[in-house]
Amino acid sequence: MLFHKLRYFIEIAKLKSYTKAAESFYISQPALSKQMKQLEEELGFRLFSRSSKGLQLTEKGQSLFYELEPLFQQVETTVNQYKKHDEVRFGSTPLLSSYFIHEHYAKLQRINFYVTVIQDDSQDLIPFLKDNRIDAAIVQDIAQVEGLYSKYLFKDEFLAAVPAASPLASQSHVSLEDCLEYTQIIPSQRSTLAEQLRLIMNDRQFTGEVIETHYQAMTGLVSLGMGIAYLPSIMANQIEYRGVTFVPISDQQLFREMYLYATSEAMLDFLYEKFS
Question: What DSSP designation does 215 have?
Fold first, then answer.
């Protein structure tokens, strides 16, 4: 019951009127006055005083109002968000679903959050957002898209996946120059990682062997000692693969920046809090 009394107090303080506050809550003024009297008894000090200027907050009442008013605003905002977003249709990639979204499941499961579209490349989720087939998604390396709302979410650096028997496996860090001494295992499908690696190899005039394979198969080839691959840290930090050691790259040039997208600003703010 204290919560309701404090809510009444906030409204009276904002409107500077018992009458107007009573009307906003659809209760009688005597009933509201009784609630305030009980609240003052519970707190042990007066909240309001009357003067020639009308209803005024006491010094302690003013301090209490300044402390409580933003908290109650946040409560109201949160409740309204839950009322508006009774179901969230989300687009994701297999990696994000497996190694990022699950870490936030405790918050997400309370808001009827459903991954309804999966695409191998997160950038392919943008048309689904524009057509309102999904409400939100995490998209890699694209900061803004006209007609959509976005916020920077996190930076995901890649680690070198090296064979456990390799001399590199015992090092705390490796450089890309170190890695380019070995066969490069890269994704066969269109991806930002494959493009970044090809640019680096061209720039360093790499003449070694390149093996192209499906993203999910790269680590398996590393375990067989066939070369070096690169995996995002959100994945590498959560898996153990026999015969493979994940090593940080010191001259880090392989990374991706992830952005949260939504079809409305309210949805974006709502989900950003859940993922932060």
Answer: G
What average pLDDT does this structure show over 99-103?
A: 91
Note whether 147 and 254 are within 8 A (CB): no
Q: Supply φ then ψ for residue 214, to 5 degrees.
A: -65, 145
Q: Are 142 and 129 in contact (CB under 8 A)?
A: no
Burial class (CB in 10 A: 0-12, 13-18, 19+), 107: middle
Instruction: Using the Cα atoms of residue 115, residue 97, residue 264 and residue 82 in order, give the sign of their dihedral.
Output: positive
Cα separation, 193 vs 189, whole angstroms: 10
- Spatial separation of the C-alpha atoms in residues 190 and 20, rounded to whole Å: 63
pTM, two decimal places: 0.67
Residue 216 carries which DSSP code?
G
- How far from chain centre, in Å, is Cα 25? 36
Tokens matching residue 180: 């380019």
Distances (CA, A) of 193 to 141, 146, 149, 168: 11, 25, 25, 21
End-to-end CA distance of the chain: 32
Over residues 129-169, the pLDDT tens digits come to 999 899 999 999 999 999 999 999 999 999 999 999 999 99
Q: For 231, phi and psi rounded to 5 degrees?
A: -125, 145
Strand blocks (E) in the chain: 48-51, 54-57, 88-92, 113-118, 136-140, 149-163, 184-187, 210-213, 229-232, 244-247, 255-262
> What does DSSP assign to residue 29?
H
Mean pLDDT, residues 256-263: 96
Side-chain-side CA neighbours of residue 72 (13 Å): 16
pLDDT tens per residue across span 173-222? 999 999 999 999 999 877 788 888 999 999 999 999 999 998 889 999 99
User: What pLDDT, on the 0 to 100 scale, is given for residue 78?
Assistant: 66
